[in-house]
Amino acid sequence: MTSSKRVRPTEEIVEELRAALxxxxxxxxxxxxxxxxxxxxxxxxxxxxGRCNVGTAQKLTAVLRGAAAGGDA
Length: 73
Known about the structure:
two-stranded antiparallel ribbon
C-alpha cells in the first residue's frame, strides 16, 4: 500500500474531526496528519492534535464533559 493511500483516509478523518470540533466551538490550530507516520510503513498515519492555548483546552474539556454527561457544553 502506498503512503498516499494510507494518508488519504487519515486526512479525511482529520477534516471530519476539525469540522466536529468547530461545530462545538473548539479550534485546534495544529490539528493535522502526523508527517512521520504518514510516510512510514505503519498501516495508518497518526493524527497530531497539536498544541493549543489554555482557553482552548478549557473549552475542549467542557465539551467533552458535556458529551460524557449526555448534554451540551
